[in-house]
Design brief:
This protein is an all-alpha fold. It has seven helices and no strands. Helix 2 (about 20-40) packs across helix 4 and helix 4 packs antiparallel against helix 5 (about 105-115). The mean pLDDT is about 85. InterPro entries: MtlR-like, MtlR-like_sf.
């Protein structure tokens, strides 16, 4: 079995029984953690990793939104992946801050999910995955699970191969001209 397929099966086994609100909150949390891992691997390690002055939750790169932006600026994700992450973030925020009983079929969620799947709608992987789980959920819920599962699996595999920023690049600019 291909690693991407294994990642998707693991993702689906974990999130398949979650109600829409839980899935809408937990999936972006997983993606946020994977982004943090990728960013940490790219950056020079913090002097005190337990209280990272950039990545701790109350710091400059402590939010999902800021991590999405820095991941893009560091070349870890492309603009399309960045846009997809922001859509998932917006869906998460609406579920997290809404008081009404929500599902993925409401107009605002449906339009964002359609925007999410648009670039991959006709790919074989997306078609096979949606076919495999169709019938168990609404089409919108199925699409959300498949696209977010693909993103999570891809980012999970990618985060393990991210190289530190100094790898194959220039040395950091030294302040002391005699030692630079």
């Amino acid at each position: 079995m291909h690693e991407a397929e294994t990642q998707f099966r693991d993702f689906f086994a974990f999130y398949a029984n979650e109600p829409p609100r839980s899935a809408a909150i937990l999936v972006p949390a997983k993606l946020d953690a994977l982004l943090r891992d990728s960013i940490e691997r790219r950056l020079i390690p913090a002097d005190n990793p337990k209280d990272d002055p950039l990545l701790s939750s109350d710091r400059a790169l402590g939010t999902f939104s800021s991590r999405i932006e820095i991941a893009y600026r560091l070349g870890l994700i492309d603009s399309q992946f960045k846009s997809a992450l922001h859509l998932l973030r917006k869906i998460r925020n609406e579920f997290a801050h809404g008081f009404d009983d929500q599902d993925f079929s409401t107009p605002q969620h449906r339009s964002r999910i359609l925007e999410l799947v648009k670039p991959i709608l006709h790919t074989r992987y997306f078609t096979d995955a949606t076919t495999a789980i169709s019938g168990a959920y609404s089409m919108d819920h199925t699409n959300y699970l498949v696209v977010s599962g693909m993103m999570t699996g891809g980012l999970s595999m990618y985060s393990h191969v991210v190289q530190p920023i100094g790898a194959n690049l220039l040395r950091p600019l030294a302040f002391d001209p005699d030692n630079g």
